[in-house]
Amino acid sequence: MDRTLEAGDGLTLRGREWPSPEAKGTIVIVHGLGEHIGRHASLAAFLNGLGWRVVAYDQRGHGRSGGGRGRLRRADDLLTDLATVLDAVRAEHPGPLVLLGHSMGGLAAARFVAEALAPQPASWSRPVDALVLSSPAIDSGLSGAQRALLAVLHPLAPDLAVANGVRPEWVSRDAAVVAAYRADAQVHDRVTPRLVRFIVDGGPVVLERAARWRVPTLLLYGGSDRTISPAGSAAFAAAAPADVVTTRAFAPLVHEVFNEPEKAEVLAALGGWLDTLAAAPKPGNPP
User: Fold this and answer.
1) Could you tell me if 101 and 30 are in contact, meaning their C-beta atoms sit under 8 angstroms apart?
2) Largest CB tally within 10 Å, which of 9, 97, 108, 241?
3) Which residues are identified as catalytic?
4) How crowded is residue 190: how many other Cβ atoms within 10 Å of its Cβ?
C-alpha cells in the first residue's frame, strides 16, 4: 500500500507499506544512493514471511519523492526525513521498530542511531529497537584528490549534480540484477557535493561512537564490494561491542548482498538474527 508523507520543509516523501497480520514489529527500509524502494520489494516480501511489517520510502531526490536528483537542501535532510518517517510509523504501529539501511541508507541509519550517543542529541534523534546494516557507506572510499575536489566544490557549488560513479556491474554478480538496474527508469546516477559531504562526514561520526554502541545491530557486507569500501564495515565491527553488533562478512559477495547469487545464505543470516531478536526478553520482563 502506498503512503505519502510531508517532510519538515514541505517536500513530499513517497513511501510504501507491506502489512503483516499479527506483526512482530515494523522494519523500516532505507534505500541506497541513486535507487528507490521498489528495488527492495523482494526483501520486504521475505520479511513479511517472517512475520514483520515493512515500511519503506524513497529518500528525497530519489524515486517518486520530491527534490532534485541526488540533492539535499541541508546537510541533515536525510536524518530529519527519517525522523518524520519513524514518527509516522510509531504513531500508527506501536511495538518494536527495526531500521534496515542499505549502502548510503545504511550510513544514514547508522548515523541516525549514533546521534543518541552525542552529549546533546539533535532534535531529530529518535530511539529505535534494533538496526540492520547492509553494505553501509561508512567508508566513502574517496581518494585524496577526490576529497580535495570536494573541498573546493562544496562551498562553491553544493547543488551541482554530477555522476555518482556507481557502475551497474558492481552492484551484483547476478547478470539479471544488473540488467534490471540498467533498465530501471527510477534509478539515477546523480549526486551533489552537499550529499557527498554528508556521506564523507557521517562515517567518521559512526566510527568514533562505535565503541559505545548500545542498539542491537546486524552488520552484513560483501568482502569484494567495489561500490563501497568494505574497510568501513570492518572498522565498525572491530570498534563496536561484540555482544551488541553481530557481523557477517561474505568474502566473495559484492555490494547488494540481498541480490547476489548467494542471497539465500544472507537472508538466512538476517532471518536467524531477527528471530533471536524477537525472542529476546523485553526490558522489564522476566526471561
Assistant:
1) yes
2) 108
3) 103, 225, 255
4) 18
Q: What is the pLDDT of residues 211-262, one digit of tens each?
A: 999 999 999 999 999 999 999 999 999 999 999 999 999 999 999 999 999 9
Amino acid at 265: E
CB 156 within 8 A of CB 36: no
C-alpha grid cell, residue 85: 518517517
Alpha-helical runs (H) found in 140-224: 144-156, 175-183, 193-209
**Domains and their CATH numbers in the chain:** 2-279 (3.40.50.1820)
Q: How many CB atoms lie within 10 A of CB 277?
A: 18
**pLDDT for the residue 246:** 98
Residue 69, Cβ neighbours under 10 Å: how many?
A: 16
Instruction: Place 287 in a pLDDT band, splitting at 50, 70 and 90.
Output: very low
